[in-house]
Structures are given as structure tokens and as C-alpha cells.
Design brief:
The protein contains 2 helices and 19 strands. The protein is of the alpha+beta class. It has 2 domains: about 1-70 and about 205-245, no CATH class; about 80-200, no CATH class. The protein starts with a helix and ends with a helix.
């Protein structure tokens, strides 16, 4: 009976983790360039005792182990908005930005100019070009971003956006604020990755799918809770009856 309680608790722990993932996805339905995460679990069979004196072999206990939350890297919907400083990423690539914590990566192409003329994201992080930060002078006009990331104004080319890719994008760590960090350095993105100027990539979260997952997880969690409660009642009954016999 005690083993059954442990199995139930392991299932509840995994389900609680999945609820956290779903909640985060739902909270970022409207976040530009957001990539959803899913939950991955694995069955863990408890090692059994090996004493030869047992009349029958032990039953193998199946627990649930959290195996991580992989990224869904599928392309999000691209919506034109005619803003010359907005770009949507298409393909396997990320934009490099400088943050107080160091170099980070994002799919958020909602750019703007700060008070000093630096090209920044909507969160104020400096967008990195191949040669570092990109600065536009106050006297410059006609800012345009080409599909290859080249930024130009009336005074000519001002830089080229740094697009990077990773050998194992699943190793990227979420840092919050729609940013990722990587222990491995990014490499220049291939020809399959390009920008769509005057547009933004929306979140790839599918609200209907997430709501379905949410209902399914809630039902399963309630069912497991009910089983644990009944097992606890059964144990209490057994203890009382054993006490009466004594």
C-alpha cells in the first residue's frame, strides 16, 4: 500500500510540472517570437529485491520521472505590420542581443531605437550586428532592413544583423523575457534562415491544444488524488481493525 502511495505522488509531481509548462505557454500566447515547451516523462521501474527466500518474485513498481521540457521550434505565424524596424525570422536561426547578463538569443524582431540611437529589442536589449551593436544617427532617415539582415539608411549600409544557429537548439536554456542562453557558442545561420522585413513572428503556442492539455492534466491529477485518498482511508481502516484484534 505504501508503494502505491509513492507511485501516486510521483505521478502528481510530474503532472504539477506539466501544469507549470502549460501555464507558461498560455501566458505567452501573445509574446512575439515565443517558442512553446512541452513535457517529457519516462517510466522508471523500481529495482526489486533479490532475496532467494521469497515465495514469489517482487512486483516491479512503475514510477514517473521528469525528463525535461523540450522546445517546440516550429515556425510561428508571421504577420505583416508595415513597421520598417520590425522583422520576422524564418528558418532555423536566432537573433543575438546583449543583456546585462551577457550575450543572449531571441526570436523577438520588434526593434526600435533608444535615446542614443542604438537598435534595441522591445525589452531594451542591444541588437547585435556582425560587428557589434548597431547605431543609427539622429540625422539619418529611410531605415530599411533587408532579408539578409543588412541595415541601411540614407547614408548607406549601417551594419548587418547577427543571425546564429546551434548544433543542438534543445540545449538552449530559457532565461525569461523571451531570451535564451547557450553554453555552446552560436554559429552563423545558413542560407535557409532569412528575415521578413515589416512583419513579426507571433508565438507558436496553440491555445486550443494547450487548453485541451490543461483539462486532461487536471482530470488526471484529480483522479490520482482520489486514488491516494482512498488508499489513505484503506490504510486507516486496516490499522483500526488490527488494533481491535489486538
Amino acid at each position: 500500500m505504501q508503494n502505491a502511495l509513492f507511485v501516486g505522488v510521483s505521478a502528481q509531481t510530474a503532472l504539477a510540472r506539466e501544469l507549470d509548462v502549460i501555464a507558461n505557454n498560455m501566458a505567452n500566447v501573445s509574446t512575439t517570437g515565443f517558442k512553446a515547451r512541452s513535457s517529457r516523462f519516462q517510466e522508471y521501474l523500481m529495482p526489486v529485491a533479490s532475496a532467494d527466500s521469497f515465495q514469489r518474485s517482487d512486483r516491479r513498481l512503475s514510477y514517473v520521472i521528469d525528463q525535461g521540457t523540450p522546445l517546440d521550434l516550429t515556425q510561428g505565424p508571421v504577420e505583416p505590420d508595415s513597421n520598417p524596424m520590425h522583422v520576422a525570422l524564418r528558418g532555423d536561426a536566432f537573433l543575438a542581443v546583449q543583456t546585462p547578463q551577457g550575450l543572449r538569443y531571441t526570436r523577438n524582431g520588434a526593434f526600435e531605437l533608444d535615446a542614443t540611437g542604438n537598435l534595441v529589442t522591445s525589452d531594451g536589449h542591444a541588437v547585435q550586428g556582425d560587428g557589434g551593436p548597431i547605431t543609427i544617427g539622429q540625422q539619418e532617415t529611410g531605415l530599411a532592413i533587408a532579408p539578409d539582415g543588412t541595415i541601411s539608411t540614407n547614408l548607406g549600409i549601417r551594419g548587418r544583423l547577427r543571425l546564429v544557429t546551434f548544433a543542438n537548439a534543445q540545449a538552449l536554456k530559457s532565461e525569461g523575457a523571451n531570451l535564451f542562453s547557450s553554453e555552446a557558442p552560436g554559429r552563423p545561420a545558413g542560407p535557409g534562415a532569412h528575415l521578413e522585413p515589416g512583419a513579426l513572428e507571433r508565438s507558436n503556442v496553440k491555445p486550443v491544444v494547450e487548453m485541451t492539455r490543461l483539462m486532461d492534466v487536471n482530470r488526471t491529477y484529480s483522479m490520482v488524488s482520489s486514488v491516494i485518498s482512498r488508499l489513505d482511508d484503506l490504510r486507516g481502516t486496516a490499522i483500526r481493525r488490527l488494533a481491535d484484534v489486538a
